[in-house]
Design brief:
By secondary structure, the chain is an alpha+beta fold. It is built from 15 helices and 23 strands. The protein starts with a strand and ends with a helix.
């Protein structure tokens, strides 16, 4: 079992380079299975979720070659399977993008119900609604989603989402790329990784307009060709390091970012007392004084991201006064609060609302990460805490953050990764 050990109380300083965006990479990797040829994807993050998506591609028959730590070549010409193993697909929520990709290319897909972090009810009904509008028959049985184009090939259609959903927007967009005719998606998500997936597809020969607005139009094409594409920087990773500086103090240059993508995050951190200097592809993030209270509500882009909610909540624990954090996207995203309470946090949760009363400081404690962003919040709290914090369940963190321990150490944080025997191993030794 791997755990992180953090000795907190040190302000952060120096430079940190942000990796490619996890959520964009998952959409792009799945979309690459539409391409009959070689796709070279650059600035890809070296994280567990990406590894799992590439494993699924291999199971489908694609040839995958790691060029270096941040570049992969995918030849999807040889894909013959339209289903992958349950074990591979259940581990990661992004596997559902293969429904759209395989359905779009072959007219058929069998994909396991997605896994990933447990953030409450995250139905795929909008995905299914979109596929059915495109002429597919979709059934869920024995833990698998079976989707088949009724006429062998999807047909362009008008799709209106009842709620704004990033996953369904990307999935239906991928599926419609090779459908006959015009598809119009209304009430589409506008997140940067939606735009990045569309830009990738367009660079391979797709005809997609309007990504980044609430109406996306896809005119189907016969085929896609190979090419080279670079993934955008990870907005949430950058935001996580901003939150770490907020909690621990100091001054850090966050490099390899698109400042425009971060405005929804920096606006709220500015409210609580952070200062920012913007450069072309970097942000200088600083905190010298006390943090101030604020109210936060997570919303679809360009609102404050739900994937930054745990991190800003950790920082607000150290702000003067009482803050209110409202989760506007998921039902079950405050499970980490009990862990912060072990460190002395004063937080009361009622449904989707957390009331955070500021404290002077965290105290180090043994903790367990319950999901990806919750794990990041615990690291942030540990860096700011007095004493030593030990975090178990760090596999969640490594699903979405490349070299977090190494990057934090580069900023002066006292954090190490320790391999300790788990209970089963100890019993065997005894």
């Amino acid at each position: 079992m791997i755990k992180y050990v953090i000795r907190g109380g040190r302000p952060l300083s120096g430079e940190v380079s942000v990796s490619g965006a996890k959520n964009a990479a998952l959409g792009v990797i799945a979309a690459s299975s539409l391409v009959e040829g070689v796709t070279r994807i650059e600035n890809i993050p070296k994280i567990l979720d990406v590894t799992l998506m590439l494993e699924i591609l291999r199971e489908l028959g694609a040839k995958v070659r790691l060029v270096n730590g941040s570049t992969v070549e995918i030849d999807s010409t040889s894909i013959v399977n339209t289903s992958a193993s349950y074990e591979a697909m259940r581990k990661i929520r992004g596997s559902y993008y293969f429904i759209g990709a395989l359905l779009g290319r072959f007219g058929h897909a069998v994909v396991a119900m997605p896994g990933g972090c447990d953030l409450g009810v995250r139905p795929i009904d909008q995905h299914i609604k979109g596929f059915e509008a495109l002429g597919a028959e979709v059934k869920v049985k024995s833990g698998f989603i079976h989707a088949t184009a009724r006429e062998g090939r999807l047909k362009g259609a008008h799709v209106y989402f009842d709620v704004i959903t990033v996953g369904a927007t990307i999935n239906v967009m991928i599926a419609a790329t090779m459908a006959d005719g015009l598809t119009v998606i209304e009430n589409a998500a506008k997140e940067p990784h939606v735009v990045d997936t569309a830009n990738f597809l367009n660079s391979m020969g797709a005809n997609i307009t309007g990504a980044g607005t609430d109406v996306i139009k896809i005119r189907g094409v016969e085929s896609l060709h190979g090419g080279t594409y670079s993934i955008i920087p990870d907005q949430i990773e950058a935001g996580t390091y901003i939150a770490a500086v907020a909690a621990a103090g100091g001054s850090v240059l966050v490099k390899n970012v698109i400042p425009k993508h971060l405005e929804c995050i920096t606006a709220k951190f500015s409210e609580i007392g952070m200062s920012f200097e913007e450069y072309d592809d970097a942000l200088l993030v600083s905190r010298t004084g006390k943090l101030m209270k604020t109210n936060v509500k997570t919303l679809p882009y360009p609102g404050f991201p739900t994937d930054m909610q745990p991190q800003i909540t950790a920082a607000l624990c150290l702000a003067e006064g009482t803050s209110v954090v409202t989760e506007g996207i998921y039902d079950n995203r405050f499970k980490y609060v009990d862990e912060l309470k072990r460190m002395g946090a004063k937080i009361q949760v009622d449904g989707k609302v957390a009331v955070v009363e500021g404290i002077e400081s965290f105290s180090g404690a043994p903790l367990c990460a319950c999901d990806l962003r919750a794990g990041a919040a615990l690291v942030i709290a540990g860096l700011a805490a007095k004493g030593t914090t030990e975090i178990r369940g760090v596999h969640h963190i490594e699903r979405g953050y490349e070299k977090m321990v190494e990057k934090v150490r580069g900023l002066g944080g006292d954090i190490v990764c320790v391999d300790v025997p788990d209970a089963d191993e100890l019993s065997e030794v005894g």
